[in-house]
Amino acid sequence: MTDHTETRHTRVVVLLGSLRTDSYNRRIAERLQAEAPPDVTVELATGLDNLPFYNEELDGDGVPATARDLRAHVASADRVLAVTPEYNGTMPAVLNNAIDWLSRPYGVGALKGKPFAVVGATPTRSGGRWSHEDARRSATVAGADVVPDLLLSHSTLDADVFDDPDVFGRFLAALVALVEHQPVVDLAA
Ligand SMILES: Cc1cc2nc3c(=O)[nH]c(=O)nc-3n(C[C@H](O)[C@H](O)[C@H](O)COP(=O)(O)O)c2cc1C
Question: pTM score, two decimals?
Answer without folding.
Answer: 0.89
